[in-house]
Records
---
Amino acid sequence: MVSGANDVATQTVVNAINALLGNYETTVDLRVPSLQKQGDDDALAPAIEEMRHGDIGAVIVYGVNPRIRLRGRRRLRDGSENVPLVVAMTDRPDETTEHADIVCPDHHYLEAWADAEPVQGCYSLGQPTIRPLFDTRAAQDSLLKWIGATPDFPSYLRQFWRSEIFSRQRRVGSFDAFWNQALHDGVTEIEPPPAHSTPLPVAQATRADTLRPAIRAIETRQQAARTALGGGRYEVVVHETIALRDGRHANNPWLQELPDPITSLTWGNCAAIAPSVAAALGVANGDVISIATAGAHVDAPVYIQRGQAPGCVALALGYGRTHAGKVGRGVGANAFPFVRLVDGRREYRVLNATLTKTGRREPLALTQLHQALEGRPIVQEISLASLHAQPVAAAHGAELPLSLWDESESAHHGHLWGMSIDLTACTGCSACVVACQAENNVPVVGKDEVLRAREMHWLRIDRYHAGSDDRPQTVFQPMMCQHCNHAPCETVCPVLATVHSSEGLNQQVYNRCIGTRYCANNCPYKVRRFNWFQYANNARFDYTMNDRLEAMVLNPDVVVRSRGVMEKCSLCTQRIQAGKAARDAEHRDVRDGDIRTACQQACPADAIVFGDLNDPHSRIAQLVRDGRSYHVLDELGTRPNVSYLAKVRNPLEGSHS
């Protein structure tokens, strides 16, 4: 169990729960602490005060953007005006560089050497993968030159590892061998954790004199919140999205156009409120409201979110950038003013907020407008108890619907490529969506086109709600071309632009397509995308920061489509062909796992499996025979090669979850 609150009382209670559940030394490891986050805003307060009094002669800002992220940015702004020299070292323009006296362009991390110790005793070493694209210099090289040191940073880094790290490693060998191995692996463990350590004792974590004050503090805070939320007052909670996080990559158009898995919103953030609050305020999706507290004021469009707590308004961070580049500038509202310091720690919630209608509207670029299954078995679920009671192949022995196709002619005797997606494992993180976009040169179309339902993603994450507005159940379902063996799109194309391959792939021949869009109209899964404009090399859709970068974004193994053609998921056919060619060169057959699609490779939950359905020993063939396996809209007789594993829920007796 992980605490999402940044206060000692809540984390004390969570520690006790983990101790009682026996999580320490199993799922919670106290031996190896994470070193990725150290320090806080409060630690900078003395330095900011010295800046305000003119006691600091120069400030160097490296790799951060305090004018956006720092809680005391107003004091920082006032203090920096009294500093004679402000130097910003960064790889991109931002709000801090806009007010710096000198800007030193830094290498991109793919162009630079680096090392880190993210976990105690575990060292990571990074090396350049590309040459510098622009006239930049590593920040470390600049610092070395300014202090008069002779070696460059790679030499300095190598010498540091020789004297400080290699001398502590317990293996026998030369430094050159150790260095080369560390470069190859990217990580090396110098001081492994001890074999035996003392876990947090249950008695210590659950002591009454420790827990009672923590529980009283939580109850006191909750009572204060309930009191503050009365009379038209609300709690504002700010959070990071899966795409932009804190906004440092707001100038990336892939991330701006990535639909949020909960709201399906692109190109901006919103004020998520409960349906009951929306009814009380008389607002609908897209109506702009003013959110005001004692120290902050932000205007944002409304999104009515099922499951949202009635007294809470949620607003995403990372938006409202003023100097983020031509992609991220002016997109959404800045929620950082609602971040505050409490006892030296950041609090991402604030009470006593008021909501006021402004009378303005800002349309929301949503990619999914309907959120209910309406009783249709598109997403299937099963309880854990039912799954244990059901035979393994019970759900896969159903009789196939009648077909007008000649099954003997449509049989595949070689490879039959398919995919299986586990809905229990899928978290809706959308890593597969971005991976597909990068791999297959899927264009970015912008907010105006998304508002017209013309988004181009080959893979989307459908999100459905069931149950009441207060306590809905949510499920995610990745949806792409199902590569039907009896494909409705193939029979209606007048020019044979969409055809079936001998290996079970539904192929799109771009230079045949004349844009009738009959295939899209006939597709029951609505997974085909029409290229309305010349997105490549078109100033209207040029979202790159520099013309020199546009070609580098594109995958040379995949064709760049022109205007007026239909496109959709190809199951990464370029990877299939490359995999087969590599195995031919090795004079052997393709083995299970040799070929991985981009979405499968990017999935952190291993929810996506790709392989040969005709190989009975392959992992996907075994999953298709699983009792949870089903095809979406199987009653239509399309015979898809993409299957799903029903979502497993394990509700407590008497609960509504």
---
Amino acid sequence: MKLQLKLKQKIQILIISIATIIYLFAIGYISINARQTTTEDTERIVDINAQKFAKQIQVNMNESMAVVRTLARGFENYDSWEKDKWQDLINQMYDKIIREHHNIYSLWDSWELNVIDTSWNKPYGRITNTYFREQGIIKNTNKIRSQEGDNEIYSNIKEANREMILPLYFDVFTEGKSEKRLMSSLLCPIQKDNGDYVGIVGVDVTMDRFQELINNIDLQNLQGDYAFLISHKGKYAGHPDTSKLNKAIEKNPTQRKGFDLYKKLKEDEPFSIIHKNNELDKQYVSYCPIDIGRTGTPWYLGISIPVSSIMHEADKNFVISLIIGVIGLILLFIVIYIITKNITNPVEKLTSVLNRLSEGEIDEKMKLNVNTGDEIEEMANALNTSIEELNKKNEFANKLGNGELDIEYELSGNKDELGKSLLEMRDSLKKNREEEEKRKVEEQKRQWTNEGLNKFADIQRQNNDNIQNLVDQVIKNLVFYLEANQGGIFLVNDEDENKKFLELKSAFAFDRQKYFDRKIEFGDGLVGTCAIERQTIYMTEIPQDYIEITSGLGDANPDCLLLVPVKTEDQLVGVVEIASFNKLEDYQISFVEKVCESIASTISSVKVNMKTQKLLEQSQQQSEELSSQEEEMRQNMEELQATQEEAARQKADMESVVNAFHKANYVVEYDLDEKIVDVNDKYLELLGLTKEEVVGTHHTYKMKLTEKQKKDYKKFWDELREGKVKKDTNVIELNGKTFIFAETYTPIIDENGAVKKILKIAIEISEFDFEKISST
């Protein structure tokens, strides 16, 4: 909504706005520069302090590194020492150094064993000396290590062969201690003249004193500052929050995409960044490197200050400047108000008339007679002209309101936008009148379609149990509703799935029902084509003899012909053909298509119901037949059950006979290769053998054959394989015992009449028989 202001108010707003902008620009420029200067000065103070405290830590750590380097250089002439005084000399030096340097937690060395002991020729193995503090007491250890091979950490140290500072750890190199502290180790190698590795000297320094230094760093007048120490591996060596110790610093604490803090720390240069977790938590952090000896792996001291703390003083000055500016603006507003009031009084009368005009009042009496000779007089004259033109436009608008849309209006000029708008409104009203007439026609078409669909829906509900009645009523009412002359419905005859065709089911022409015996194959004529393509066909140029030749609807000559497929989504039910002397409109064709879609499902449903009824009748007939068969089957089942009971009894008798047979005889089964495949328990019990020991053995296993048996053995088995039953007497010697058996060999025949195995049934006979057999 446009804000309506008086001229006085506009002048006041204009002057005040310009003065305010200039004033705010000046105040803002000064305040922002002062704020920026304050920010830069504070950041410079933070950077200087970071460098100062980093230098303190560097001196402290390099003091320990100097001790290590001095010892390593002193040990380079180890080969000139007396071997028996070696250990005492080292102990004296280490004891004195650790007592004088309280910042050293432990002092240790590691000598390659092949350097100390010429009899040791392996590339690993070492001797270590360690001096350390534990609860204020200095202790020392001496050990031989790595006799089975160097561990990974020591291997890396030996391979580097240079000054190193190890990553942070919790006292893992020193044994026998009860205290576990966060520390690091400063290392310097002991080398031969040619630079070969001999050993290493190291000191362990705890992070406690650095943590104390970190905690004592305090920048005056800056709230929320804290310091932290980062190792060369990017882990916290000191931090006010001790839970972060030995944990990695965030790789990208900024919101700069792709920033890598670890890569920045390796540059060994001071820098500063803004840590920004969110808009309310910004930290200015100054990083300063700490170079430790010649390790080439600098540590970093970081000092963090909340950006809000840095900006506090600048914001305070900025607020004071704004308050002063607001007071100055208020005084400026008062002066401007007094000046503009004196200037705008002559305009108030003109404004009063304009207000009346803006409220819609138009009267010749509203014209003003102003003779000031300035712009106000020009405004009054322009206003008078506007009143005259508005009166003309008002009269034109009233005539338009009365429906006089053919009235003409002459524009007052090329810039008469209101007049142009009135003319456009007149043209728009004409167009709307025409569109309203079209809309009424469309509404009549929609109403006609809806009424027709409801009508045919009622027909389907009333005739959903008989296809013939349904199609008769549909085609009859469809011809009447379209005011056509002829119509017919062809339905798909699918009684023979392999030979479907279209059958004229119902036809209506000139107010009378027609019946024809007409069949059309798919693809024949327009009806067959419509069935194949399943698309609507509408023709207005029809040969004079078409109806008589193709349609099957009589000998009338219509001016238009409509064929619509009766189909569901995936099934063709039939084709509706309509012939009329009056050409059909698009909405009528669309209506017929909708009716065909609707009756398709109904016809399909009726067909399904008819098939279902037929199947039900067949099912009832089959049910009666099945009932009769069921009674006959029941009787057969009773006879079968009696037979099964008799068979079960005979089977039980047979099993009893078989069991008795096995208890009274020794039974063995052989394959055609003369090997035992099965043996009964009685025979195994007599022989004192297990089935595993017997199955798979040859027929002659443990047998004592006579000369005659040896001579006739092959013939004996050949006759068995030919299916002859053989009897024999055999002697078996086992575990000092002799068994004599009278045996009967019976071939077992398969379903094809071939011998598949040999069954032997044997009984044990007396020793008298054995002597008789032996004599023969």
---
Amino acid sequence: MTRVRIGPSCMLAVLAVTGGACLAVGQDRSPLAEARALLAQGRLVEADSALARLSRVAGPEQRLAGASLAELRLRRGRRAEAIDLAAGLVGTVSDPSDLAARDWLALGIAERVLGESDPQRFKNALEALDRAVEMDSSLVEGHLRLGDLFLEKYNAPDARAAYGEVLRRDSGNARARLGVARVLLFEGSPAAGAAATAALAASAELAGTHTLLARLALDAEQYDSAAVHARRAISLDSLDLEAWGTLAAVAALGGGGGQGFEAAAAIVSRLHSRPAAFYAALAEAAARHRRYADAARWAREGIAADPADARALGVLAMNELRLGQMDSGRVHLEASFERDPYHLWHKNTLDLLDAVAKFRTVSSQRFMLVAPPAQAEALALELVPLLEAAYDSLVTRYAYRPPTPIRLEIYDRHADFSVRTVGLPGLGALGVSFGTVLAIDAPTARPGGAFNWGSTAWHELAHTFTLGVSGHRVPRWLSEGLSVLEERRARPGWGAHPSAGFLVALQDGRLPPLSRLNDGFVRPKRAEDIGNAYYMASLACEWMEATWGLDAIRRLLQGYAEGGHTPALLQRVLGVAPGELDRRFDAYVRQRFAKGLAAVGSAATRQSGGDFAAMLERGQRALTAGKAPEARAAFEDALESFPEHAESGGPAEQLAALALDAGDTTRALAYLARVTGVNDGAADANQLEAELRLARGDARGALAAMERLAWMSPLDPGLHARLAEAASRTGNHARAVRARRVVLAQQPGDAVEARYQLARALADAGDGAAARREVLRTLEDAPGFEAAQALLLELNRGGRRP
């Protein structure tokens, strides 16, 4: 095969990167194919001239050549010229009935270019492309363009269908496989990586595939791999600003230094007159690395390059919102949405900002809580003391004070929380930390008792500290691991705990080593992989602190702030090579859970029924058959084999229920404690424990159970009323007052009784002035309320009861 010479633009790209080569081009091509080949090689000036020449020659390729020329001018940043060319092409159509399928394809491309100045033209582009494939269903380019346009306008289902139509005809089509991978990435599917690899297998000569693989590697903080794929993409398409942005991000985020970033920026500025997409790609990569201030800064550079670029405006807006710059964030988001009204994320976020504008703000010494008006006061009563205590604890741990006030947004609809964090409904997380801006689900955003609200808030605040100490450079595995560890330090039972699924994954070798813990977060293969990654990362942090001390954790975080990266930094701080560190940590985990690993067994023993799950199943069968002694024996065997198991419905809960059936509340409470002391989401077990302890006159034990339960249901007025009673019986009057305030803040049906109970609690706490104010307000609403009258007399006597 004859190879053409390397043109100046392609040579420029090759000089900037290593390992790349321009595409080979055969001699036997149509004129339009030859022009496109010049473009693929980076010979932009020659490609431009060839397309311009073809666009002036009447024939079947004229319109497609003209559309391709307009598209090339747009890709080079010459927007006005591109729009003029596209408008001229569209204007030549006088009788649509005379158009062939290729002409409709050309019109679709031209209308897509015109969409840069008038978003409504995207609809015309869609109609033209639809017409093209309707006339010629075998027109692969038409289906591919449809898929690209749908995905560009955030319509993943239709994009998938368009790519699927191509794959139905040609299962090895690399562009369609790439399209599917991009759809999966858009949807946040962990299968995106495998799909991108499949696209690469179909063709290694597609720039977009390497660009996507570069992004995935960058997100996994695998900087060398990201650079290799970005360079390969650029060698295949020197105008791929996404690849250039990723390459610059590797230098800026991966420790390559400013020189590599500046070199990439300089080359891009010569290739493109308005390289806003380069800066937008760089800013988006920074945001995915939690570098929100850097993301905003680079987005501003994109706007400086092209003030009308919707993407750069949107990236700036979203990162300003993450930084708590709500007013400027909204202004820039509205400007972006005006230019791109199909952007679902931006539309959702603008709607959300309208809702948040009606929220109530409650401020404390170091926090600003923004919550729905009906919930704000009650939630603040419980959360502010916890957050203030957490702040003090974490300051001591990390020797760092984040700037205040820290903004915490609370959403009573999980879909709203998802929009705030990723722009689309469906995020599975409970909270997110952008640094000094946090967002979490309100307790009512999920089913009652579905998660522990207190531990979630503590977890997110811990991120504020680790992000701050590290200059937002801490890798995800370390930040998440430390947050889960801080949960466990905060309260007994908080934080992740070992599950049978975790031990099975560990036994089967499905958990990544310490040196690759990030894979569990960014490249999960199963739904449970992310949960296992959180727990595994927390174990790694716990082990490192126990082995090398808290100062080693601090030095690691500081090392990231100074530009260090994980392998070298771990070796420098801990004095252990990565491979040896992996070996030691694996040995530690397997020794710590030796009994549990034996219980879950190997794959072979699980098939033979001699494992923990089989014991549970035998117990359940016996229970169903009414054979309590056999059920008890099976559950005891299961608990003995895996004593740390604390999942709901597990052996400890089953044994508690059997003991209770036998009238043995002492044993029932002992079994329940094995659940409630470990599982911070065990709502039913805590409820039962509180009831049993109250029945036995153990107000202190009942109060402890209700305190745990209150973090799962902090807006349950009945729970807080019972908690106040238990607190009063133990002499904890301050806690009783707070619980009574929570009840009253939710505007209960019997507000008079609730206010009287608050007055009573205040009197018991020795705050006569506040008690008098509340009892007088009670009597204003109910003058004949005898208990309130008696309390007022008591207060007037100086607190002495008659």
